[in-house]
Structures are given as structure tokens and as C-alpha cells.
Amino acid sequence: MSAGGSAAGSGLVVGLCLAFLGQQFGFFDLSSLVTGLIYLIAFAVVFAVVFGLLGMWIGARYLRKHTSLTPWKEKAAAPAESSSTSPPSTDTETK
Predict the structure, then answer these.
(1) What would the pLDDT profile of 60-95 be if each residue is shown by its tens digit?
(2) H/E/C letters for each residue in 43-54?
(3) Which CB contacts under 8 angstroms, 24+ apart, belong to 31-35?
(4) Fewest CB within 10 A of the end CB: N or C in the chain?
(5) Which pLDDT band, with edges at 50, 70 and 90, does 12 fall under?
(6) First to last CA, the chain
(7) What is the number of other CB atoms lying within 10 angstroms of the CB of residue 48?
(8) Which of 51, 26, 29, 49 is CA-nearest to residue 38?
């Protein structure tokens, strides 16, 4: 999962929690079906978008800082590994 998608999911949950917390403190009236749904959807969408944008920005910054990768490039070419599974022996047998 990308950083933006993960952060957007977290923002959605935070938005819903804040809407329910606001209702508990008496800031919002969620007892009416229409206004309750409007508040819940608005909070969920706004926080998902804000957190998603922040997650995308932080993820791109991380990639630029810690690797030579960008979000639009795939992995850099990895060095070819040898086909043998054991290292070559340097000991010479004497009989």
C-alpha cells in the first residue's frame, strides 16, 4: 500500500472519530438522518483528502531522501548475483 493510500485510510477514520466526538460534546446534531450523514461524509472526505495529500508528500520526500528512487521510477537495476550457492574454496588439498 502506498503512503498516500495508507494515510488517506487513517484520515477517514480520524474524520469519523472527530465527528462522533463532536456529537458527544454537543457540537453536532447527528440524530437527524440527513444532517448526520452530511456531517459524517464531509468529515470523512475532508480528513481523508488532507491526510492522503500529506502521506503522498511525506512518502515522496522519504524516497528522495533515502534512495535514488522517485515515485514514478521502478527499482534501480540490482547487481547481478552469482549463480553458485557456495563461495569458491581457496583451500588446496594435499595428499
Answers:
(1) 888 888 776 556 655 555 555 555 555 665 666 665
(2) HHHHHHHHHHHH
(3) none
(4) C
(5) very high
(6) 60
(7) 20
(8) 29
